[in-house]
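Fold it.
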Amino acid sequence: MDNFKVEPLRLESNLPERPFGRAGLRLPQFTLTLKLILVGVGLLLIGGGSFLVFGNSSFAERNVTVTIDGPKEVSSGQRVTYTVHYANSNRARLTNAQLSFSYPTDAISLKNDTTGTATKEIIDLGTIDGKTSGEQSFTAYIVGSQGAIKTAKATLTFTPAELTTQLQKSGETSATLISLPVPLDVVVPPTIVNGQQVSYLIDYRNQSGEDLANLRLKVKFPEGFVPVQQKDIWDIATLLRGDGARITIQGTISGREKEAKTLSVTLQKQIPTASGLVYIDFEKAEASSVIATPLLSAYLTLQDSTDYVAHVSDQLKYAIRLTNNTNSALTSLTLTAKLEGTMYDLATMDSTGAFDSRTRVITWNSAVVPELGNLGANQSIVVPFRIKLKSAFPGGTIGTQNSFVKTTVHAETLD
């Protein structure tokens, strides 16, 4: 037994020896290839973890939908109900949900049997739970001209429970106005001149196939139009099917050159509502004229001014500037000036034209102003005359009837 001894077992290894670790164990050594493989596995695990986290999200925007049910073709004045469907197919709920509905242009909204002119309606939906849906209805009378496209739109705004950003989804539907129960035909002159007397024509006929009652036609005149008869509403108690009529409106129009003057016509019908009988728009039509440059223009100045304030005993010096606004010569022209007011001293008239003291009109023609016989294209001439004002007011006192003088100029051609 004395020859017995213990020796450590030696393992053959090509790895160089390293110092022992804290635990008295030798640290394992890895080759470069093994290190790369481990790094790759680590990245794969991290990536796989991320995929699981995001892949399990309970909200996706595509799972929120908004659609509108409505007709594709309508008649003007038709009552239409739109149904808005909204759905949340996510597991997550939608918070602060709000539904906004925009009515078609010119539509008359109808809510709780009460008409209105609101163009948009907003409904607070609060919270829409996951895997749920809902709907809202909106009613209106559609108004417009034949061929018009009328579009209704709904927008749902919301905040997903897992997010802080507000999102929205929208849907819309369009309808074409295919017919007019009572077509309106509005006729106006295409071009007019400032101060011209014009006639507007409005034709209407019942083509609905049934008798109509309690209609009203309203006219909106263009700015600067003064009608002979102060009337802009015509009530139509009964309009049998196939029957029609014409309304003629006469008046004087004024405005600037190239200014558009639009006549708007609205046909209304009477309907019962919760607040009583009311008229709503049924159809609309309009037509426009343009103020054109007149063939002849005449401008009058007094003492070389357009806003001179006259005084008793003044010697008034008038000048009429007559212009041919065309590209062709105008012949056989006549120019007149009419004097109004008691303050003119007619005995002092000084003019090359013929003066008729009875009518108080001065007349010029080519016999006294040769250029009136042939006024060239875009050519102007100036025709003067003079007259004095009386030295005192009639009756010795100033009054409304004798405190002003007025001169009106008119030119025409016989061609």
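The CA atoms of residues 145 and 169 lie 31 Å apart.
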